[in-house]
Amino acid sequence: MQYKSTRGKVSGIGFIDAFLMGLANDGGLLVPEQIPTVSAETLNAWSKLSYQELTLAILDLYTNDEIPADDLKRMVNDSYATFRHPEVTPVTKLKDELYLLELFHGPTFAFKDIALQFMGQLYTYVARERNLPINILGATSGDTGASSIEGVRGKEGINICILHPHGKVSKVQELQMTTVTDSNVLNLSVHGNFDDCQRMIKDLFADLDFKAKHNLCAINSINIVRIIAQTVYYFYAYFRVQEASGASQVSFSVPSGNFGDIFAGYLAKRMGLPVDRLVIATNANNILERFVETGEYKPDNFRMTYSPSMDIQVASNFERYLYYVLGENAEAIESLMNGFRANGSLSVSADVLEKVRAEFGAYGVDNEACLETIKRYEASTGYLLDPHSACGVEAAEQRGQSGSVMISLATAHPAKFDEAVQLTGIKQEFPAQISSLFDKPQRQTIVDGETAAIVSELVKFYPAQA
């Protein structure tokens, strides 16, 4: 397996080099040169595996045997030893034909832990094996930052800088990042929104001289390894629901901001997982819903919502999907994305939109509907959803089809977003790991939302490479 760029000027990249490259050097995103396909016989064999064993089986399709089997097994086992549930990503039934895939049992109580715990192990391995200093640079709308930091804090040979939008993440998300005191961690609280943070990150990675000088590595979902690691729980959820319901095919509803999580579901489907529909659940920042409805991809006015991790207007991984729906036409992608950067919008033809609608549904959930869904499910089932998971469940109800089994992704523990839960009148008890955060001092640097301000902090943070 080799990797290539969606924009066509990078190809023949191995697994570890793709991991280290992050954003492709031509400004595109890396994808497999061929998506591996899985037979019905293999699916049947995989259905009997533990989560860790399934992870190894899927990684084996992508790693080119670049990592010795014993080392890879140790990394996977160490990644999920920190999870609070033995199944890692258990599935629970909410009601007839609706299941919930719980992705919040990792150390920071968010789905990002599943890929980022593994990526932390992989970065540690690469730093040691290649004697290479690793300087991770990422942006977060809340959860990626905490999960990334947790994966590499205190690790020798690794530094990590995370940008988050100042005042636009939940208090728990902020505390999980800024109460970390390890010297290899820098938190930059940026005046602006997540899209501003993400744009600056991509600009810095696109500056190849700066990227090489500072040995920059990506932790966001622009990194293809993060997408691959997330495909595992789609397979795992299907197997568990198949056991419980006998369903031969399922649909997924996915709370979506940066399109990485749902692209992992799309990749799993392309690999051969029996997926009917993928439903994009958004909030009021609903650029993806508008695209599915109209074929136009155009940011609107930014809105703060009760589901801040989805407060994203420009979804990085959308380029990967466009690449496939346009028939892997790298020239068309480069033209579209250059036009988007220049004009702030892009459109696809009616024929392409028809293909999109055959694969995806979409539904935007406003703040009122989000809170109502939390209240309704807590009252009827006793299950407390966080606001992002509530958006997923509401979208599943609105876009699901009778007789079709739907799996909705629960992407975070409700304690991470108590500001929203309090508005429902529901009182929850915090896990001890979260309660303890409020007694710790914070450490962060507040900066202007300009690339020059970020560069100034990075140069100070990475003195050996400056």
TrEMBL record:
Keywords: Lyase, Pyridoxal phosphate. This is Threonine synthase. One of its GO terms (biological process) is threonine biosynthetic process. It is an enzyme of class 4 (lyase). Its cofactor is pyridoxal 5'-phosphate. The keyword rRNA-binding does not apply. It comes from Paenibacillus curdlanolyticus YK9. It holds the Pfam family PALP. CDD domains: Thr-synth_2. Residues 2-80 form the Threonine synthase N-terminal domain. GO terms for molecular function: threonine synthase activity. The modification N6-(pyridoxal phosphate)lysine is found at K112.
